[in-house]
Sequence to fold (185 residues):
Amino acid sequence: MTKPYVIDELISAKAIAARIEDLARQISRHYAGTDKLVVVGLLRGSFIFIADLVREIDLPVEVDFLEASSYGNAMETSREVRILKDLRSAIEGRDVLVVEDIVDTGFTLHHVVNLLKSRNPARLEVCALLDKPARREVPIRATWTGFEIPDEFVVGYGIDYAQRNRNLPFIGKVRFTDPAPEGAA
Ligand code: PRP
Fold:
């Protein structure tokens, strides 16, 4: 069970789309000329971001997915990162772009980057839509970040609260309304 809450818009769908165009331009420039780019989405949170991002990247890309988990349904991140689904592709000698929805404590990204680097890609960079630096426990940064955000509990555009709200087209922040939302019967 979740406590009653409402969602306030933090980043609009339009702002996200504009920022993705910028990010894709920078990424396309960085990897210009390559035919060995594999874009790796971290499930489940990055599924919408990666779909929009790859459509703006002006290069041949292969798309693959990896699922790592560091949360349960709770709001706090545990330090244990488990790989629930590994890549289908071998990445040795490839150009790898890891796509993440949010970097919070940094444990997930740290673990995934170390794992993928151990497979000897030619290059490995990270693009994260959101960065919450106030929460960082592991010193890691994405190569490209969409938006730096304050320490708010965010949902939408792929990001869930208790597996809901991933389908919101914008990034919202969760505001708990105890005992009931305004206007509720
Ligand atoms: C969330 C989010 C990031 C990670 C960030 O994933 O999508 O991958 O946590 O947290 P961290 O920087 O503190 O490690 P989650 O494990 O909730 O899985 P999901 O993507 O399936 O929602």
Q: What stands out?
A: Residues 10 and 172 are 5 Å apart (CA to CA). Residues 42-45, 69-71, 77, 100-109, 160 surround PRP (CB under 6 Å). The mean pLDDT is 93.
